[in-house]
Amino acid sequence: MSSLAEKDRPIVQLLLNAGTCPRCVLRFCCVGSQMLYRHPHKDLMKDLQEFLKNNQEKEDTVCLDVADPPCKRIRLEDRGEGADDLNHNGAILQIPSSDDGNAAMEKVCNVCLGILQEFCEADFVKKVCQKVNSADYQFTSFVFSVSLPPQLSVRERAAWLGVKQQMRNLGLPLAKDDIIQLKEAYKWIIHPQLSEELGVPADGKSLFEVSVVFAHPETEEECHFLATACPDCFKPAKNKQSVFTRMAVIKALEKIKEEDFLKHFPCPPSSPKNLCDALEIQCNNGAVFVAGRYNKYSRNLPQTPWIIDGERKLESSVEELISEHLMAEFKADSFNFSSSGREDVDVRTLGNGRPFAIELVNPRRICFTVEEMKRLQQAINDSSDKIQVRDLQLVTREAIGRMKEGEEEKTKTYSALIWTDKAIEREDIAFLDDIKELKLDQKTPLRVLHRRPLAVRCRLIHTMRSEYIDEHHFRLHLKAQAGTYIKEFVHGDFGRTKPNIGSLLNRTADILELDVESVDVDWPPTLAD
């Protein structure tokens, strides 16, 4: 085996005698050739046996030329057969014979617990691919992830300490970072097989993830001694079923002293009876983001579901009317809706609409043409007369940030139908047209105090234009800073907004209707009809 050197022979011998699989032996010998790990298990075992045998024969040949002191060969003759059974220090070597290949395969590795054995075989790869294909995902590449039992880290440490001691005896250095990580070796083996079976390349940046979760119940208590040695590493968490997470175990292994570790755990680790279990084979597609603008024409439709104390107040919402079509077409598990501000249930959104974005979680379908998006937009618009959608398009996660950037610096234009208790003439409201950059102090409105913190917010009314209707009604067109509470600016909210239309007109004023006429956010891009 060309990737192994003379210095690796004691490591190979130590690990094979301890019940370590050939691939883990290569890892601890710091072999970085990906192709070598892909060789069949039986071939690797045979190669390692030949490596030990060849090196032993070379050493024996050298010993025949030594007259004094007596060489190993002379001492071996007294034993008859078994000349291959001594190491360079005269200790007995247990070199597995080629005839034991099948038995070696059946023995579960004392380090990887079988992950680099059974779970690298074609049958398991086909099982994973059957799960992927049955899930009916649309993908052009994949990323493969593995969740390993936390006790594997304990076994790796025990094996490493054994190898480290062997190398120290030989006066050779060994850094733990030089050892090939189990996950890395496993992916070297499994990636080409999955890629061939699925017909797409493995790509670390792919949004489609295939994951396997391994467990080994037989040895799950092996890391529990660490909780006594390093109690501060194992703290309960609400979202964790056990404190013995892989990261907690790794953290404890970094803190515990070698001598303390060796008091609690055998080195090298013993061989288990059973293989790991592949508990779960899961697929997950990265989120897809859809953006657009919506118009709301109903004064009886909330933006999001209106539910109070578990009771639904209105049968639908803007969010639901849009998302139900997207969920069906993208075949997603769930969604998250966001928008550039929100309007009250009784407020219409007119003009070019309000920008919105929907995150579709774990979608099965991800590729849509421009024409397909147009048809989807039309389906949404045909389904209800309460809303209309425009500029529906696929966007990136990063692009959604533009919708929220400088939100309070943006402006919004409104049209408010206002009533006054005292009669008015045109001249009574004309002065409003001349007011520019009116500064307001708005204490959190009473109607939203249950969901917004109490604070005084400074807002600007940039311009106003009045439109007289009759002695008790007029329409006011306003351009205001985003985040301004327009209803409260009209009626004053019991003096919580100052100044307000009532105080400016020196009479009681109230708002009867409110429309959002424009949301001045230049996103998402306008699409041609």
TrEMBL record:
<comment type="similarity">
    <text>Belongs to the pseudouridine synthase Pus10 family.</text>
</comment>
<dbReference type="InterPro" id="IPR048742">
    <property type="entry name" value="Pus10_N_euk"/>
</dbReference>
<dbReference type="InterPro" id="IPR039894">
    <property type="entry name" value="Pus10-like"/>
</dbReference>
<keyword id="KW-0539">Nucleus</keyword>
<dbReference type="GO" id="GO:0046872">
    <property type="term" value="F:metal ion binding"/>
</dbReference>
<dbReference type="InterPro" id="IPR020103">
    <property type="entry name" value="PsdUridine_synth_cat_dom_sf"/>
</dbReference>
<dbReference type="InterPro" id="IPR048741">
    <property type="entry name" value="Pus10-like_C"/>
</dbReference>
<dbReference type="GO" id="GO:0005739">
    <property type="term" value="C:mitochondrion"/>
</dbReference>
<keyword id="KW-0175">Coiled coil</keyword>
<keyword id="KW-0413">Isomerase</keyword>
<dbReference type="Pfam" id="PF21237">
    <property type="entry name" value="Pus10_N_euk"/>
</dbReference>
<keyword id="KW-0479">Metal-binding</keyword>
<feature type="domain" description="Pus10 N-terminal eukaryotes">
    <location>
        <begin position="109"/>
        <end position="283"/>
    </location>
</feature>
<dbReference type="GO" id="GO:0003723">
    <property type="term" value="F:RNA binding"/>
</dbReference>
<keyword id="KW-0862">Zinc</keyword>
<keyword id="KW-0496">Mitochondrion</keyword>
<dbReference type="GO" id="GO:0005634">
    <property type="term" value="C:nucleus"/>
</dbReference>
<dbReference type="GO" id="GO:0031119">
    <property type="term" value="P:tRNA pseudouridine synthesis"/>
</dbReference>
<feature type="domain" description="Pus10-like C-terminal">
    <location>
        <begin position="289"/>
        <end position="520"/>
    </location>
</feature>
<keyword id="KW-0963">Cytoplasm</keyword>
<keyword id="KW-0819">tRNA processing</keyword>
<dbReference type="GO" id="GO:0160148">
    <property type="term" value="F:tRNA pseudouridine(55) synthase activity"/>
</dbReference>
<dbReference type="Pfam" id="PF21238">
    <property type="entry name" value="Pus10_C"/>
</dbReference>
<protein>
    <recommendedName>
        <fullName>tRNA pseudouridine synthase Pus10</fullName>
        <ecNumber>5.4.99.25</ecNumber>
    </recommendedName>
</protein>
